[in-house]
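Q: I'm writing up a methods section and want to include an example of the input and output format. Could you take the sequence below and give the corresponding predicted structure tokens, formatted cleanly so I can copy it straight into the document?
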Amino acid sequence: MKKTKLEAKSRVERGRKISKGRKQGLVPAVIYGHGVKSESLWVNDLDLQRLMRFSGESVIIDLAIDGKDDRNVLIHEIQRDRVSNKFLHVDFFQVKMNEKIETEVELVFVGESAAVKEQSGVLVKNMDKVLVKCLPADLPSHIDVDVSMIKTFEDHVAVKNLKIPTKVEIEIDPETVIASVTPPRTEEELSKLEEKVEADVTKVEGVVKEEAPAEEAKKESK
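A: Here is the clean output for your methods example:
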């Protein structure tokens, strides 16, 4: 089991008061779980960035609260700023090591497809995570998707082709397609994309085509 440590401290600030903590490089967080009392926390922004960069979301975290109260948690949800992508809030879910959990695990695409390399196809990824069920200690940090098995445009990688640890269950139809390769666009298709279609506004309901000034003058003189 891959496990990493993260420091946290209790938080009493609420509402607008948390902006001060954010300016100090802290991210507001909360911890909860089955039979676990919800608690508000602070975590260091840089520590969280390092954790996400080197471990990802699908990992059991040893969350040390106030330097003494260690909890086994998973990241349940992360909220980010849409513009800056900075962390706004983190939800930690406390797990029990003897109870199975359901969580999403990241898919990592490895290998090289002959359909892409030799036939200039385009790799299509239908999903980047899968839902799994297992004990926390058996949770994989990621699952590899070997795209080298896609040799032609008719081939694909399905859930059933993944190498899943024996103690891990995948909560999805095994026939679900994860990745495939589409052929490159033909010259005819590309030329059609470049064509400009001019819409006739007179065919739009409620729009009346204005007559030319010369035509209006002729009508008035009759």
